[in-house]
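About this split. The held-out portion is used to measure sequence recovery: a designer receives only the structure tokens and must propose an amino acid at every position. Recovery is the fraction of positions where the proposal matches the reference. Here is one held-out target exactly as it appears in the evaluation file.
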């Protein structure tokens, strides 16, 4: 159900990033299964590096399971989200999939220009990127303000420096208790 549209979209992305085709061509014949709950699809690498939809019952050389909660982070190119994809199987295929996910970029302006023209497409994409940066900056500012509020105004979160000092004090106390126990054992042996 999801296979054909997903493979078409991936092939379009590969065409925009032509450098990726020879990399994938080295893995011709390999099949990868992607599970984005509740959907799943498989694709096979062709000799030219493009992808073909694989049969639902095809044996997968590698499987990547993407939790739905990671999709927004992946869309924003969050590098740490890629590390949370559960993948098993052919290590070379998995490594190539993750490399391509990190390095391929969608040229939205090129696709949009077919409908709006080049200048309008560039301006729309520029506006969207600016809005995205603004949203990310606002989220960072809000999280910093909340962290400051919870550490300074209404201390619900411990600051790093007092927490480290407390940890050192606990360590010193543990060492003192251990020394005291040894001293007590020595005194009890002498009696």
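Reference sequence for scoring:
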């Amino acid at each position: 159900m999801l296979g054909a549209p997903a493979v078409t979209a991936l092939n379009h992305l590969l065409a925009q990033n032509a450098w990726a085709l020879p990399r994938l061509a080295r893995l011709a014949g390999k099949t990868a299964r992607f599970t984005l709950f509740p959907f799943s699809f498989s694709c096979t690498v062709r000799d030219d590096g493009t992808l073909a939809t694989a049969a639902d019952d095809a044996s997968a050389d590698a499987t990547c399971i993407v939790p739905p909660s990671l999709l927004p982070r992946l869309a924003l190119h969050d590098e740490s989200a890629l590390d949370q994809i559960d993948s098993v199987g052919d290590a070379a295929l998995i490594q190539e999939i993750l490399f391509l996910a990190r390095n391929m970029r969608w040229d939205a302006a090129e696709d949009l220009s077919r409908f709006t023209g080049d200048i309008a497409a560039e301006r729309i994409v520029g506006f969207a990127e600016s809005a995205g940066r603004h949203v990310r900056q606002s989220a960072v500012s809000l999280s910093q303000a909340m962290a400051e509020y919870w550490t300074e105004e209404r201390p619900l979160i411990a600051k790093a420096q007092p927490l480290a000092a407390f940890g050192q004090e606990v360590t010193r106390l543990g060492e003192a208790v251990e020394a005291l126990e040894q001293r007590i054992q020595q005194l009890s042996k002498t009696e």
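Annotator remark: The mean pLDDT is 84.
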